[in-house]
Each structure stands twice: as structure tokens, then as C-alpha cells.
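SAMPLE LOG
Freezer: B-3
Tube label: C17
Construct: single chain, 74 aa
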Amino acid sequence: MFTIKVIDHRDGETLEYKTVCVHYSGFFGGQTCDVKTNSRGEAHFDYRNGIGKIYVGSKVVYEGEISGYMVVEL
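STRUCTURE (predicted):
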């Protein structure tokens, strides 16, 4: 399980209702379902931790280990 918080890179404000998805790397890769950020800019995932890419909309905003509580900028 992990949570991804999306903030605006210009002012650090949280971004509501953004679509977040994770694409896992490797042979057993796969991807999560799309999750919308809530009023605190957080998208909660009930998926395994792993290595992959975080997408907000169609833009890759992070690549690497995905676990715990993560903050990404858009």
C-alpha cells in the first residue's frame, strides 16, 4: 500500500482531482487502476510496493522505487 501526493511545482499547493497511475517495471510489471487525488492532493493505492513509473495524467513525474508516502510535483 502506498499514497502519492501531487503538488504544484510553482507554489507547493496540493492539486485536487488529478488522475494518478503507476506502471510497474520488470517481467511481472503491470499497472494500477487510475486513482483521482482527493481534496488534500492524495491518491491512495492498495497495491504492492515496487519499482516503476508514476504518471499524473499522461506525464511521467517519477521513476524509481514506489512505497510509503510519496510527494510528486506537477
